[in-house]
Amino acid sequence: MEVLVPFSADRPKSRLADALSPSERATFARTMLADVLAAIDRAGGDPHVLATDEFDPSDGPVAGGPSPPVTVDDRPLTDAVNAVLAERRPGGEGDPLAVVMADLALATPAAFDRLFAGHAGGDGRDRSGAPDVSIVPGRGGGTNALVVSHPRFRVDYHGASYLDHRRIADEVGATVRTVDSHRLATDVDERSDLAELLIHGDGAAAAWLREAGFSLDADGGRVGVVRE
Amino acid sequence: MEVLVPFSADRPKSRLADALSPSERATFARTMLADVLAAIDRAGGDPHVLATDEFDPSDGPVAGGPSPPVTVDDRPLTDAVNAVLAERRPGGEGDPLAVVMADLALATPAAFDRLFAGHAGGDGRDRSGAPDVSIVPGRGGGTNALVVSHPRFRVDYHGASYLDHRRIADEVGATVRTVDSHRLATDVDERSDLAELLIHGDGAAAAWLREAGFSLDADGGRVGVVRE
């Protein structure tokens, strides 16, 4: 299955400004992308980076991972993804298409297996009983990953996009399955998300974070992070 | 499967003090408990409330739900749960025992099905290849639900208990499976968790919250809540 991975190459991870410097944020974002691409690859997906700016995935902080094709589109995320959906017509003439955020650093092949299941019908036509759209809600109402097998479904990533995507699916008559995964619900956006990565991550991004001096801070209710 | 549901009957949900009054917190906690008990029941589990104080589950804000047995134990959570584990010896002489937090208001029967799967071996002995302990990590490193099929496993709910429970399982030679669920990872503890309940909940607790005037606030990054 083709898996589109939107990536902000120019101004990544601004909401981590209280934890990391601009150059650290750029490196960290590239490292998370490498982890996501590797997990997609190991789950049998074919990643395809949709970047806001030119960059070379093989010239990143992690050596030896997948080196997928990159398409540059500097429009806002929603427009860029919808352009691909309009061109590919997944579930119509085209195969199913997945869209996976680049900051799902807790993602594992097993989690992606659960997301891709039921959509892997080859030509997108032999799928009786399968959902037209699978959605992984992110924490806070976002949409962290999608699989689209319906030619008229479109995305709208603004605001509480999980609820919008359910509504849009309804409007075009597409059936929806929600995939219940803490790993895929956790996009690493804010300082508190770093704790999740230190607890559950075993990829390059978690290693980079530990190397940068972060560790768990178990005082108080939920565990946070401290930097030495 | 017997499912132990610890419930703080005396001072519930203190970390929601910035959103709800003390009497509202008590009602909200009872309503979440009713939702959790109903989901366990519909997944085929037999709930058993482990309360810090006397109370009558049938005299709650939600009518018509399961009315499980209640055991009162005013010791700290860890001691009270370990006393039951020592008595029942799940996976030894006893059947598997689940421990599920009372504030998992996003829980569904399907999510509990995934948790209970592999442990439902009747007498706890015919379980070749099944895990000895299944753990659902909560956000921030907690342990939101467990199934124990090993007579020497004990809990320690202090701090980053998910990592502690993995270590304890290692020490007693118990195999561990982690269950990846956003619904079960979301314990409703803090104001930001209320947004998850409004987005995903369809039980009595979500209805109570809407009735109390809460709605989603989609300004900014992740969606929060406002109260009218």
From TrEMBL, chains A, B:
InterPro entries per record: CofC, Nucleotide-diphossugar_trans
Region (Disordered): 48-72
Enzyme Commission code: 2.7.7.68
Keyword Protein biosynthesis among UniProt keywords: no
Keyword GTP-binding: yes
Highest taxon of the lineage: Archaea
Catalysis performed (reactions): (2S)-2-phospholactate + GTP + H(+) = (2S)-lactyl-2-diphospho-5'-guanosine + diphosphate
A biological process term (GO) from this entry: F420-0 metabolic process
GO MF term set: GTP binding; phospholactate guanylyltransferase activity
Pathway: Cofactor biosynthesis; coenzyme F420 biosynthesis
Alphabetic keyword roster: GTP-binding, Nucleotide-binding, Nucleotidyltransferase, Transferase
Enzyme class: transferase
Subunit-structure text: Homodimer.
Family label: Belongs to the CofC family.
Function, as annotated: Guanylyltransferase that catalyzes the activation of (2S)-2-phospholactate (2-PL) as (2S)-lactyl-2-diphospho-5'-guanosine, via the condensation of 2-PL with GTP. It is involved in the biosynthesis of coenzyme F420, a hydride carrier cofactor.
Protein name: 2-phospho-L-lactate guanylyltransferase
